[in-house]
Amino acid sequence: MPIKRPGKSKSPVRAEEMESLRKTAAVEVDSDRRPTKEAHAAFWASAVKFAFCFGGLQASYLIWGYMQELIMTTKFQPTARVPSGKFPSAAFCVFSNRFLAVLVALVAVKVKHGAFFSNNAAPLLAFTPCALSNTLSSWSQYASLKYVSFPVQTVFKSSKIIPVMIMGKVLQGSLYPWSQYLEAFLITSGVAIFSLYSKDAKTDTNTEFLGLLFLLCYISFDSFTSQWQSRIYKDYGKANVDPYQMMLGVNTSAICITTAGLLVSGDLPIVFEFLQANPVALRYNIITAITSATGQLFIFYTIKEFGPIAFTVIMTTRQMFSISLSALLFGHVIALKAGIGAAVVFGVLFYQIHQKYKGSSSQRSR
């Protein structure tokens, strides 16, 4: 009887097992490669989307800021009732911005909800307080440019953290850690240094004080606006009031307020006469209104896609670009000490962004 030596014959079962293992390994390699390719494609898709948001926000608000300064500082052709040649009404600038914003918001709400006004949304009266404060803050912002430079205005805006904290405490009973008070103090100190050493030789102390007073009104009213909007979301629920409905409600109330203000003040016929003599001023207002509306849409889209931290980074860098662009185009001189003040302000702002990022990262990892 022949003796079977081990290893000499190949078992069919063994061969099938080896083939199965080879196929399994090949599938695993492919499955390892596939997510890598998908992740690579997703990364570039996200990068393109972020570049679109970054570019859209920068373009919208850099042009918006430039046109604001151009409108309020250009000496146009004088008219009978405006012999100075300066644009006669900051309220009309606010009106033109709100008018286009209402149209854009109507389209956005109609597309998203199928109706211009939803029964589930907050009533129009609920938006009136923040619409009034938003109108007054925008008016103060335009008016301040008659007395202070755009770089001073831009850096001064960063100090609104203090009135935001005050309004949060008064309206919603918010509590803040001591570190936020320290950051607010540093930002305010940086703003004060920048404002002190950015004096224009052509601007006297009285007019500069008036400009800073307008800026103080701006940050106070703007802080109330954001806190009241948060209160609306809290009272009526984010499920019933989305950002586009908020945009529509606030701007609808604001357009009523600005129209009434133009009629009561008598600015409307003065502005019409001025625009007839200076059609370029009308074009400036139209461009400002368009970039204001596109900026709001980019804000909503960016926050939706990348969250508030990425949006804050983009807008903080936008402020730095705005200062540089204004200094370049309008000849503002920024002294070394003023630059140090600005560095303190933006340094604290970026530190705040970093802390928020660390906080959100730790929450996601839990």
What does this structure look like?
This protein is an all-alpha fold and 366 residues long. The protein has a domain at 90-114 and 124-354. It is built from eleven helices and no strands. Helix 3 packs antiparallel against helix 7. The longest helix has 62 residues, at 12-73. The model has no long low-confidence stretch (mean pLDDT 80).
Structural class: mainly alpha
Mean pLDDT: 80
Distance between the termini: 70 Å
Assess the beta-strand content as a share of residues: under 5%
Order of helix and strand elements from N to C terminus: HHHHHHHHHHH
Largest β sheet strand count, sense and barrel closure: none
Give the overall shape, derived from the CA principal axes.
globular
The helix content is over 70%
Q: How many helices does DSSP assign? A: 11
Subcellular location: Membrane
Protein name: Solute carrier family 35 (Adenosine 3'-phospho 5'-phosphosulfate transporter), member B2
GO molecular function: 3'-phosphoadenosine 5'-phosphosulfate transmembrane transporter activity
Pfam families: UAA
